[in-house]
Structures are given as C-alpha cells and as structure tokens.
Amino acid sequence: MTLKDIAKATGFHVSTVSRALDQNSRINLTEDVVRQIRETADAMGYRRNRLASGLRTNRTMTIGVVIPDITNALFPPIVRGIESVMEPEGYASIIVNTDNVPEREMRLVDVLTERGVDGILHAATLRDDDSIQLIRSHNVPVVTLNRRVELDPPVPFVINDEALGIRMMLAHLAEYGHRRIAHIAGPVALSTGAMRVAAFHAARAAMGLAEADCPLAYAERFDEEEGHRAAIALLDGPTPFTALLCANDRLALGAIAALRQRGLSVPHDVSVTGFNDLSSLDAVTPPLTTVRILQFEAGEAAARLLLALLRDPQADIPAETVLPVVLVPRESVATPRPL
Amino acid sequence: MTLKDIAKATGFHVSTVSRALDQNSRINLTEDVVRQIRETADAMGYRRNRLASGLRTNRTMTIGVVIPDITNALFPPIVRGIESVMEPEGYASIIVNTDNVPEREMRLVDVLTERGVDGILHAATLRDDDSIQLIRSHNVPVVTLNRRVELDPPVPFVINDEALGIRMMLAHLAEYGHRRIAHIAGPVALSTGAMRVAAFHAARAAMGLAEADCPLAYAERFDEEEGHRAAIALLDGPTPFTALLCANDRLALGAIAALRQRGLSVPHDVSVTGFNDLSSLDAVTPPLTTVRILQFEAGEAAARLLLALLRDPQADIPAETVLPVVLVPRESVATPRPL
DNA sequence: TTGTACGCGTTATCAC
DNA sequence: GTGATAACGCGTACAA
C-alpha cells in the first residue's frame, strides 16, 4: 500500500494524495477531495512509509535515549517519563546502554545518528564527554538528564537538586546528634558524584562539623560492591564515625552489608543513608532513610525540552532545570551510640 | 557525506563506490580500487545512510521489542539479553511498553511496522493476542518470550519451565510438612498465569493433597496490590491454610503485607513463596523463597531465534524453547504451625 | 571489472 | 486546487 496505489484507486495524482493525507498541506485542497482520498486510504489500509518520508524530510520521528544500564532501577522510570511525552507526539525511542564505557558510548551514538534520530536524550553523560561533541557535530539536538556535562556552549540539562538533598540529609543526621559523619562519595567523573561530594563538603563546613571528624571514601562505581569496599576502607581508617552518608542507595546497601559483616548493627551502631529512593527500599532491613528524586518527571521535563528543540532548533529553552528533592526518613538512622 | 561525494572525490562512479563499501559486492572489484575508495571514504568520514539503504533493501537493521512495562524489574535483564545478541550484529532496538492494554499493543505494533522494523521480539503477548496477527499480516518475523501465544500456525516462543518451578515449590513446602497450601494465581489471560495455576492443580493432585485443603484466589494483575487483595480474600475465605504459594514475587510481596496487617507473621504463622527471583529479594524481610528464572538468557535465546529468521524467513527454528528454573530456598518458609 | 540507468516511497516546488 | 517533476541516498540488473 503506497501513495501510488491510493492514487490509482482514486484517480488523483500521487502528490494530491500526499497532500490530502498531510495535516498541513490539506488546507489547499477541496474538502470533498480530501474526504474521498482519506476514506479510500483508510479502506485500503494505507500507512505512510516513515523511511521514505524521512529520507525526503530528514525527520525520522525517532529519538535516541542513551542510558548507562536499564537494569539499574534508576532508569526505567526515566524512560517511561520520556515515552509519556514523546509517544503521543509520534516519536519512537531507540534505547542504548553504555555501561559508562566511553568507547561504547561513542559507538552507540553512531548507531543512533546512522539511523537518523531527530534528537537525543542523554542520561549517561560523563562530566567530560566526547560523545556529546560527536552528537553536536551531526547537528542533532541533545538534552542531558540525571547528569550534566561541562561544555561550551552549554548543553541543556535536567538534574535533581543534589546540593539540597545532601544538605537536608546532613541536617537530618545532625538533628539526631551525629557529629562524626563519614561520606561514601560516588565517581567524580559523573556530575552526580562530583556535585554530591562538593555539597557534602560545603554543608559540613556550614554546619560547623570538623573536617577531621568526617572521613571520606570514593567509590569508583555507583554499585553495592563499591559501597562495600568503601565502607570497609572507612572502618579500617583512623577516623571513627557514627553515621555514614552514602552518595546513592546502592552504595548504602553495599555499606550496610559490610557493616554487618563487621558485626555492627544498623542503625544502632552506625546510621546509614542513601540517595535516589529506589523502589522497594522500604522493604529492606532496615528501611533505608534516603532522598527521593523525581525520575519520571526528569524524563518528562527533558523530553519536553527536546521537543521544543525539535520544533525549532533555535528555540530559547532553559539551560538548567533543577528538580526538587524530598527527604524520606525511615529506620536506618538512630541516635549515635557513644564512641 | 554521501556516496556521491566519495564518487566525486575518487573519480569513480557512485555504484562502484557503493560496491567497494559493501562486503559482498566488493569481490568483483580490483583490490586497488577498493582500497582507494575505502581510504577516502574513511578520511571524509562517510557513513552509510541507513534510511536510504533501508528504503532500497527493505531492511532497517532495527528490531522492535514489545514489553509490558520496563519499570517492572522482570524486563530490563531481558532487554539486555536481547541487546547482547542483536547489537553486535548491527541491530538497534525500538522498545515499547504496552501496560498489558490490548489497544495500546495494537497501536505500538503499528509504530514499529511503520518504521520498518525487520523483526519483533514480543514479551508482552496475551494468550489470545491480536497484535501478533497484525505483525504477521505485515510479514514481519516474530518470536515471543517470557510468555507464549496460542495461535495457528504457532509462534516460536522462549519461556521458563513454569510447571517444573511450581512442582518444585510445592514439593519444597510439602517437605516442610505443609498440607494446606493456598495459591494466588496470576491473570489467566497471560500464559504465565495460566500455566502456573494449571501446574499447581496437577502437582497438588499428584502429591495427593486434597483440593478442598488448597484454596485458590485469582489476581487480575501481577502486582503487589493484587497480591494484597487476593491474600485478604483467602484469609477471609472458609479454608484455613499454612502456606501461600504465589504465582510471582510481586504477588508474594503484597500478600506478605496483607498477612502482617492481619497480625500474622511470615513464616511462623504462614509460609509464603514467590516466582521469578527479582533482584534484591534477598534484602527484604523475610528473604523470599522463590523460583529463579533466566531473564537475560531468555532475551538471548529469543534474539538468536529471531536472528535466524532474519537471515532466512523460512529457517527451521525450534517452535518451543523452555529454559530451566531453579528453586531458591530462603527464609519465608518454615514448618507449619498447628491450625 | 566498471559504468549506466532506474526505482524504492515520499514530499517540495514548480506550473497550470 | 490540482498535476507534473525532481530529488532525498542507496543498491542492483544490465550493459559495456
């Protein structure tokens, strides 16, 4: 079923049929002709060939979504948020997983641009990321979300209020009486890791906690294994602590496992906190005190920004969107036991 | 950068360039010409336009992946399994979420076929599913996974050994001494729900447990809310039970919440079991006894089947692939307390 | 071994 | 208002 078939069936010319089937050009046609063409097109089950259309218009009505790993519970809600905005507008999404490997990222961006995606939503960017440059060199609009990239000219981004989250959590721990608060920082190559550890330093200083009392360990990935390793490193370090503020939930889960291995109870011996509020964290033991971020909404917001760019590449869209976060107090924090 | 540009730069004709850049037709060309063309193509950064290529060949090197909901932890590993096979072969995936709504399913299949996907992996099929017929009417190869559809001619599928899983779990409970075992069945519109409840009946009878001692409740969706509702219904029913075998993990989680609300302890008052072994189920309280299925491997297997079909639509591939399951005993099962 | 010519399905831009 | 034509980039039967 092609335009040609409909043309033959109705007796009109292909171009007339094309116009009748297009919302915009339809205005130049007699209402009667439009109706007739559309009816037989429907009857014959005509469906526009998006490849041919894209070849002609340079628009595929497809976007690329770049994420680190869909099995990480952080990302599926983001993907659904994106879909909830893009799908009603007629856009489909090609999703690729980078595993935070730069080479993979570059190749996958190639995969996307080869298929002529109209734009890219990038939730896997590193702070210094060549793939963004690559995308730009193809003149493909891009918005990052969850993380940001530091580049000139700037890339519009949608992130969470990392600083506020860390501040609230630190204040929460202080309220319980903690003065010796350790931090497991995330990878500094990611904006989330970097921003959270910077916020930790700033908030700690502002609250008058001594730097010497608040030891730090850096995780190389945002996962349980690294959380475990970093917690052990802190426990084996010279500085005692009563609370452990982790840069995300998975680090916290790993840290809790490590503390238990060392015979420490959470929260009675050490309080532990996370960040993100992955689902079913209320079912773990103890239910984890954490910071809730807006995953679905981040996807929505970024998609809306991209949509504006797709309609008009010169559109003046906000460069920075920072979504609010909420403290979720549960049971992994208690009053400190005297050291 | 098009073939035309390379042709101009090298002095050869477009078709010669096209051939030089294609693995298969290259054999007809002088080695020297091929080298020269490929070198300048590389230097000029040529990349084949997959749209134009697809328009010509009817192959987009893109497949469609239909799942119910990516935020359901069951599916991300499946998606990665698919990707692990398809991506190295040059295929990209368009992923769509049906939410188990038939109308949505139909529209999303349209989205996929419009974009000319070469094949579809369908993990969201209903037992009686019109979207599969729709796919077939477009002559697009399809393999279902996780679930199966009952259609003639049959659609190749990759599923888990549901019957074995249920049998093993029932035997496990019986070993602990349970004779009064309730079942929360999944939606019978899904092959997983139907096969598990059928297996429950068969295994129960084979083990000599009285049907009257083993009450049933049907969930309308595989989620916590329905698990909760069904558990309450069983508790309010006339038949007492000491164990509750749930058709999947999420139903079990909901059921445990319901039991607790009624002041019952798991596993001391009632043993509860799940199916699937979603990640971090070992972190919940109590750690859930369940059946582990091979999610990633299911994705891999289905992708390999589809790949065979993409190479040769007439390929003789196995109609049924049943992956092994493993019982994972944890702490949600104990010896029954006398009624 | 290389070049010619055409068509895939659509749409933009003419002319009438 | 409608029709004719060309072009998007590529692949391939056919000719040379």
TrEMBL record, chains A, B:
Keyword Ribosomal protein carried by entry: no
MF annotations from Gene Ontology: DNA-binding transcription factor activity; transcription cis-regulatory region binding
Annotated CDD domains: HTH_LacI, PBP1_LacI_sugar_binding-like
The keyword Transcription is annotated on this UniProt entry: yes
Pfam families referenced in this protein's UniProt entry, alphabetically: Peripla_BP_3
Xref: InterPro entries: HTH_LacI, LacI/GalR-like_sensor, Lambda_DNA-bd_dom_sf, Peripla_BP_I
Keywords, comma-separated and alphabetical: DNA-binding, Repressor, Transcription, Transcription regulation
Protein known as: LacI family DNA-binding transcriptional regulator
Species annotation: Acuticoccus mangrovi
PANTHER family: HTH-TYPE TRANSCRIPTIONAL REPRESSOR PURR-RELATED, LACI-RELATED TRANSCRIPTIONAL REPRESSOR
Domain named HTH lacI-type: residues: 1-57
SMART domains: HTH_LACI
